[in-house]
């Protein structure tokens, strides 16, 4: 079958986690819930073993030059056998996990895929194979820099049906947040967010609600000076540049239903401040989106879940939502 539109490139993630499970379950049930066109960068023999373990009837095809059989899951070989069993992460598979990501990004940057959808990884396992970035988001930015020579700043957004959130600081210890937080970082994060909400999500003049760092947004300096000395000046700078932003807002009152109706995205100062409300409101259908990249990248909002890998209990809803969002974003651009 000749494919006119470009498919999404799916990286397999940690093969011992639920990444393969949610991919295979989504594919096996695509008659009930249609999926965008896709291919997976991985090891077909491994996927056959996992499908058998899950009791799923899946046909597999070799993906090459956009020609695959209609009913086969297209697999592009990474030429790296995967050996880990479900629930038992294997250091040997770290190389294959990284190769799967690299392959998807390379093909997307070469114009052979419309975007990248990544399944969950285990960074501790990857570190043993030379992975040096603190997470997927930062690694994707590194790949873009290697490809083009341009240094970019990635922005992580959790997007669900009820809420979008962006953390300004991401994968760092909580005690380091005040030292890492700066007016420049807040402004650049918000600027990238506003630009991508317009270009990739079709939101004109997006509304950015910006949280404070401290309880009650610092209470005018009574509970920390970061909100008055860093966050507030950043918001004033954003307003002066024409971005529809306001705050700093107390984080404990930003996420109830009436408050959420007033903005398109909440910009938060640290990881959990942003991700706790997003995952609470939409754990099964929220999507991790990387903004600021020249290509589309989405991911399920959950981890490897080794405890249920291979059992058939993994819910593919967030993965399907990630596919659908990546498809929508790629067609928007």
What does this entry look like structurally?
- This protein is α/β, with parallel strands linked by helices.
- The protein has 2 domains: 1-152 and 293-333, Isopropylmalate Dehydrogenase (3-Layer(aba) Sandwich); 155-292, 3-Layer(aba) Sandwich (Isopropylmalate Dehydrogenase).
- 37% of the residues lie in helices and 17% in strands.
- It has 11 helices and 12 strands.
- It has helices at residues 19-28, 44-54, 94-109, 123-127, 136-148, 177-180, 183-199, 226-240, 257-260, 271-282, 317-332; strands spanning 8-11, 38-42, 59-62, 72-77, 115-118, 155-159, 164-167, 207-211, 244-249, 265-268, 287-291, 297-300.
- It has a 12-stranded mixed sheet with strand order 3-4-2-1-5-12-11-6-7-10-8-9, sandwiched between helices.
- A hairpin with a 4-residue loop joins strand 6 and strand 7.
- Helix 3 (94-109) packs across helix 5 (136-148) and helix 7 crosses helix 8.
- The protein starts with 7 loop residues before the first strand and ends with a helix.
- The model has no long low-confidence stretch (mean pLDDT 91).
Structure summarized in a few sentences:
The protein has 333 residues and is α/β, with parallel strands linked by helices.
